[in-house]
Design a protein that fits this description.
54 residues, mainly alpha, Arc Repressor Mutant, subunit A, 4 helices, 0% strand
Length: 54
């Protein structure tokens, strides 16, 4: 799900990589929405940040 959300939002990925780290919360929210609230937000935040930084 994380990969799907990241690939569907290239503009936000670009913002994140240019230094706007708060955009990570947008991705966490989108994945939470996709998982219907079932995902662990703290773990998601960590995973999203790792994906975006790689």
């Amino acid at each position: 799900m994380i990969d799907e959300v990241i690939s569907a939002n290239p503009a936000q990925v670009d913002q994140y990589r240019k230094g706007k780290k708060t955009v990570a919360a947008f991705f966490v929210g989108q994945v939470m929405k996709a998982s219907k609230g079932q995902a662990n937000p703290a773990l998601l935040n960590e995973l999203v940040t790792k994906k975006l930084d790689s």
